[in-house]
Amino acid sequence: MPESEQDMIHPPQKPSRPTRLGFTLVELLVVIGIIAILISVLLPTLSKARQTANRTACLSNLRSIMQMMNIYAVENKQQIPLGTSSDSYQASYFIAQGNSTATWRWPTWGPLYKAGLMKSPKYMYCPSETRNYHMYDAGPENAWKPENPAGNLNDGLRAAYFLRPFSETYQPVLWRSTAPFTPVDNKNYPAATPFIWSPYPRLSKMKRVAIAADIFGAPVRINQRHLKGFNVAYADTSAEFVDRKTLTNDLPKSVDLYGNPAKNTVIPANAFENLALDDTTSNVQNPLMQACWEMLDKRSK
Questions:
Q1: pTM confidence score
Q2: Which residues, other chains included, contact 202 with Cβ-Cβ below 8 Å and sequence gap of 6+?
Q3: Is 96 helix (H, G, I), strand (E, B) or coil?
Q4: Cα 267 from Cα 255, distance rounded (Å)
Q5: pLDDT at 184
Q6: Closest Cα partner for 285 from 271, 300, 298?
């Protein structure tokens, strides 16, 4: 066969190029750039999804707390253990306090623990919390030691939620800091003090008043959890997320402090967002805290 015909049937093979392995530097930089862009787009979405999930879990916790409160009420003639462990309305998150057998006490949330209703105590803690002393079993600051809180921060075991510090008419429930460590009553506490209450309020009279909430004692407290607001639970076991703007826009202009018209107190504009300190040791913020709870009560009606 002529050479030209042979070439037509079997054309000569061109030498193949060597197979290239790996990326060039430019291609690698392009891939890295694309991944960086995707991460920058996805991270805010993932962070928002995580915040939403935590907020939902927190709402579920508060509903569980109100179910626990209702069980306690059924077993105790509708009475429920509200209150605060000092003269500050912001000290209403303790489960146990004390550094020795002579000083151990279980105020505020404590009676619910002593009644055997905290067998799964994690629901007393918000998953968004960023401070150890309001986290579950968080090392030396808040170790889960309800029978002996000594060694925790200030020898106290803290929950992550505020408990309502007063009755439906804003009469405070104060737990004694000395023996017998029971709530104050008219017979055993000086009449001059505004903190007089006896007995426990009854859940059946509270309808839809706010009972428990994320700790909202100062802007920093909201910033360390849900940022844009806080969760609250009501006596009927419902719960909702409350925008922090309501703490500026919807507060009453004044309150009858401690449920006493003679102690009517004006609430300054922007009082909440203007708080500079997280003051949990004195009662100077009690009028503002009462105004916050009154606002929450009005939302439920």
A1: 0.79
A2: 73, 77, 78, 79, 80
A3: strand
A4: 7
A5: 59
A6: 271
